[in-house]
Write a structure and sequence with these properties.
- It is built from three helices and five strands.
- By secondary structure, the protein is α+β, with helices and mostly antiparallel strands.
- Helix 1 packs across helix 2.
């Protein structure tokens, strides 16, 4: 079973990539995540001028890279920390391709 486990707002969540389902005990936060991620469906994020390469979000609950990108743009609030566990799934350019950006380019990590 392919799963992505992460913590958000001190609550633990699991994304089951085979079932396309987000699991977690806090229903309010879980619904906030689902709504934010679903709000990114059928849109393209990243590309020129971004730290991420362009990716189309069409099935975010089945693909970790799409989920992490949709979470970043649709759920993440600048006052809250982006889950460290999702960072490795972001479709990011290698550091040398950031066109002069520093390691602190993505300030929410």
């Amino acid at each position: 079973m392919k799963q992505v486990k992460f913590t958000y707002l001190n609550k633990k969540f699991t994304l089951d990539l085979e079932k396309g389902e987000l699991l977690g005990d806090d229903e309010i936060i879980k619904q906030k995540i689902i709504d934010g991620v679903n709000g990114c469906k059928n849109h393209r994020y990243g590309g020129a001028g971004s730290a991420f390469y362009a990716i189309m979000i069409d099935n975010p609950f089945y693909f970790a890279d799409q989920f992490s990108m949709a979470f970043y743009y649709g759920v993440n609030n600048k006052l809250e920390k982006y889950p460290k566990e999702l960072h490795k799934y972001l479709p990011k350019y290698k550091e040398s391709n950031f066109m002069g950006a520093t390691k602190g380019f993505i300030r929410t990590f």
